[in-house]
């Protein structure tokens, strides 16, 4: 039976079982008014019973269930049809556990399925192709999965959304999963990008700690007042990368020069046989923070814990990305890069990033020439973004957002 039919039948069964169980509960309450119901974490009450309903889909044979989910995973390879894979994980706990085992990471499959896929490295061979739409009126930027709006149309999958907030001394880009919720206390908050006063240096903060404890750097030390954010939802930010643009003091012509230091990705990930940190689930950093940080009585603000000493952890060399040097085209009289047809409009924002390795590091020449991230303009307020291993969609999107901030000293 097709998955859509399974889901429809499941919905009908839930509705019918819910109605019948409701009638049974009402009859039991009328006949046994003297008895009490046990409700987890609440006092016993006759007025609000919370029964535990088990769908028959939870008792599906594991061998048959594994075969069904594997078939769905193999057949639905693009959005929006890939929603069927997500629907399998939404049936019940047993279905969700098996679906998580079957679904592979973007590095292994080249597909983005769950929200955690946005924090996992991309594929090694072929890049994941996306595009960014800028909305000037609302200062928002939306990342879609697809070649371009003209080719994807309504089938484009929204991955991430960012909102630019200008402050007196800096600019921030708040990154969220949905386009209408940019609260740092929300579960949709993934991280942010913050610039300095000149717009030449940027820091990328992640709401999740780095997967490898050796790569963890300091948390954001910005004070958060209890009046603004509830103590139960205090956001925690971890600095995972830094982007720096070179100052153009002589005002020479040419593209911007940038350098990205990925603190959460070791340089060993691009070496022969290396692997990049790959998180498998979102951690509840808020509860961890409150359990490890006691609140002082009378304090009105919370400052996040300081940086751990360098001696307490091994020093791991981070991955550094740099601009791929363009060449000057005599006939066109402009700087050119081979974007393989993905960029069609000349702009100072266009760039390609490659790994910058030292001579003592085991990074091959071919790996140093491989484009890890490319970003370029294809129309008014439309830009393409293609990324691959070891960057994730979140990291690539944050780096591209730095190109939208005003940089008069770099042009």
Automatic annotation (TrEMBL):
Listed name of the protein: Tubby-like F-box protein
Swiss-Prot/TrEMBL GO biological process terms: regulation of DNA-templated transcription
Family annotation (Gene3D superfamilies): 1.20.1280.50, Tubby Protein, Chain A
Domain F-box: 57-101
UniProt cross-references to SUPFAM superfamilies, sorted A to Z: F-box domain, Tubby C-terminal domain-like
Record's compositionally biased regions (Polar residues): 304-315
Domain Tubby C-terminal: 118-406
Classification lineage: Eukaryota, Viridiplantae, Streptophyta, Embryophyta, Tracheophyta
InterPro entries: F-box-like_dom_sf, F-box_dom, Tubby-like_C, Tubby_C, Tubby_C_CS
Family from the record: Belongs to the TUB family.
Top-level taxonomic group: Eukaryota
Pfam family, one: Tub
